Amino acid sequence: MKTLPRLMLLALLFLLLAGLTSCRLMMDIPDGPPVPAECGNGAQEGDEDCDGLDLGGKTCSDVGYLAGALSCSADCTFNTGLCFNTDPCGDGQVLAGVEDCDGEDLDGATCESLGFSAGTLACTSGCVFDTSACAGSTSCGNGVIDDESETCDGDDFGAVIPTCDSLGYHGGGAIGCSAGCTIDDSGCIANCGDGYIEPGEACDPGMRPSPGCSDECQVNPGWECQGEPSQCTSLCGDGIITSAEDCEGADLNGQTCLSYGVGYGPLSCGDGCLFDTSACRQILAVSAGDRHTCAVLSSGAAYCWGAGASGQLGTGLATDSNVPEAVSGGLTFTGISAGGLSTCATSMVSMIQGLHCWGDNARGQLGTNNTLPSLVPVPVVNLPEDSSTLYVTTGSNFACAFFMDGTGYCWGDNESGQLGTGNQINYRAPRAVKNIMFFEDLSAGLDHTCAIADASLYCWGANDFGQLGIGGSSIPQNEAQFVSITNGPRQVSAGSQFTCAVNYSGQVYCWGRNTYGQLGDGTTTSRNIPTLVSGLTNVSAVSAGGDFACAVLTTGELRCWGRNSSGQLGNNTSLDSSTPLAVSNITTAVAVTVGGEHVCVLLVDGTLRCWGSNASGQLGAGQVGGAFDLPIHVTNF
C-alpha cells in the first residue's frame, strides 16, 4: 500500500519539470544581429527596391508614372527609364520592350513568325499583337502535322504525299512545305500552251500566241476565255479595243474613212465593235478639164472644183472654188467629163442612164438645142429613145457620147469636123457619128475625136499635127477615119493636138504634135502615125492632156511624159521629158486623168491625188495659185 503513493509522487515531479522546460522554450530569446540584404541574388529583400526580375510586384504606376516598363538597376533600385507620364502607344512606332506593335508597325512580325501557319497579323489599341485573324497551329515547325490548319510540317506531308501532277501541274517539278506549314507549289511547272488550265493560269488555248490569252496564260484585257482548251472571245462594249475589234462605241481608235482606206465621209462603230463603213464614200470617176476638175462618188453625188466663171462647176454660182463643191440638182451621177468651159455627166433618170451638161454653151456644147449657158445641170435633148447613155466625153467646146444601142452622138463646135457628122456645121443638139457603130471607147480632144468601135480605132476632126494618125495629108476629116495600131486598140485618149492609145499587149502608141516630147518616143518630132512610147509596158490606161500624157501600169505605178512647166509630170521637177518618168509616191493607181496643165489619179482605196498647175484651184488643195510638182491628197468631200 506504501508503494503506490510513492510512484504517484514521482510522476507529479516529472510533469512539473516538463512544464518548466516548455516555459523556457517559449520565451523570446534573441538570436543575434539581423542578416543584411544581398543585392544580385534575384530576391528582393531588406531595404532593396528590387533584385533582378523581382520587382516586388511593383509597376511604373506604383512609383508615380502613368505607364511603361519598370525594371531593376544593378544596385537593386528601380530603373524608371522606360516609364512615361504620356502613353507612347498610338504614335505609330514600336517601342522595344514596351510594345509588341503600334498601329501599322508590326516590328516585322507576321502570323507565321509567331508560329501560325497563315493569316493576317494586326495590332490592338493597346499595342499588343492581335492574332485573331491568324490561322493554324502555333506548333508549326515541329516537324509533325498537329491539326487541320497544317497541310504539311517540315518533311511530314501526311498519309498521301502530294505531287505537282496531283496538284494539276503538267510540266513537272517538286513540291515543298512553306514556313507556315502549307503546301508550297512554287517548284511546280505550269506548262502554258498545253491546253490545260493549271494552277496560276487563267486560260490556256493550247497554242500561242493567242489574242485573248497572254504568253503567261492570263486573260488579256477586253477578253473572256472559257473551257479547256480555252476559247477566247472579245468583250465588245467594255471600252477596251482588242485585236479582234476595230472600235468601241465612239472610240474609233483614231481612224476615219480616209485613214481606213475606204474613201471619204463619217466612219462609225457597228455591231461586234467592227467599223461601219456604210456612210463612207469612194470616188468612182474623176475627170480633169482645162482648168477645173470633177468627180463622182459612190453615193452618186458629183463634186467639181477649180475655174467656175462659166458655170462649169455646176454649183449654181459662176465662181471659182479651191475645194470640191457639190454639183446642184440632187441627181444620182454615174460618170463625168470635164472639158474646156463645160462639164457633162451621166446620171440615173427613171431607170435609164440619162445625160446632163452645164457651163458655157456658146457653141451649143450643152446639147440643149440652144446656146444658153447654165450654172446647174440641164438635160441633153434628142438622145436615142429608150437607150441608156454608157459614156460621155467633153472636148474644148463640144461633147460626144455613146449609148446602149451601139450608136455614138456628138454636139457643139464642129469647125474642124470633130463631131464626125460628115460636115463642119455646129450642132446645138446631139447628132449621130457617121459610118461607125458599136462603140467601146470614145475621147474628145481639143478639136479632134477618137473612138474604138467594133474592135477598131477611128479618129476624125483637126489633123494639123497628124493627130488623127492616118498619115499623109494634114487636112481635117469630118468623118471617122480608120487608124492602124499594132496588136489592136484597147483604150484611146485624145489630147491637145495629139493622141495616145493602149494596145492589147499593154504598150502605148502616141501620134500628133510633139513639141514638148508628149509622144514619149525620146524626140520632139511630130508624128502622123502611131509611134511606140519608149520603155513603157504593162500599161492598163493612158490619158492625153494639154501637152503631156500619163499612163497607169498594171502594178499601180504611174508614168508621165511631155511638158512639165507646172510640175505636171509629178516628179518633183519642172523639166520636160520626151520619155516616161515615174510619178513620185504613187503605187496604187487605178485610173488617171490629164487636164490642161494638171493631173489627178484615182487610187485603189477610192481616194484622189492631184498635182500640177493650181492657177484656178483645180487641185482642190484649199488654195489658189502656184503649182505642185508632187501629188497632194484631195480630202474635202
Layout of helices and strands:
Blueprint lengths: L2 H23 L41 E2 L2 E2 L5 E2 L3 E2 L33 E2 L2 E2 L5 E2 L3 E2 L40 E2 L5 E2 L38 E4 L4 E4 L22 H4 L7 E2 L5 E2 L6 E6 L3 E6 L4 E5 L14 E6 L6 E6 L3 E8 L2 E8 L14 E6 L9 E6 L3 E6 L4 E5 L14 E6 L6 E6 L3 E6 L2 E6 L15 E7 L5 E6 L3 E6 L4 E5 L14 E6 L6 E6 L3 E6 L4 E5 L14 E6 L6 E6 L3 E6 L4 E6 L13 E8 L3
Antiparallel strand pairs: 1-4, 2-3, 5-8, 6-7, 9-10, 11-12, 13-14, 15-16, 16-17, 17-18, 19-20, 20-21, 21-22, 23-24, 24-25, 25-26, 27-28, 28-29, 29-30, 31-32, 32-33, 33-34, 35-36, 36-37, 37-38, 39-40, 40-41, 41-42
Describe, in plain words, how this protein is organized in 3D:
- The chain has three domains: 68-135, no CATH class; 246-276, no CATH class; 283-634, Regulator of chromosome condensation 1/beta-lactamase-inhibitor protein II (Methylamine Dehydrogenase, Chain H, 7 Propeller), CATH 2.130.10.
- 4% of the residues lie in helices and 32% in strands.
- The chain contains two helices and 42 strands.
- The strands form 14 sheets. A four-stranded antiparallel beta sheet has the order 15-16-17-18, with no helix packed on it. The protein has a four-stranded antiparallel beta sheet with strand order 19-20-21-22, with no helix packed on it.
- It starts with a helix and ends with a strand.
- 45% of the residues are buried.
- Residues 1-30 have low confidence and may be disordered.
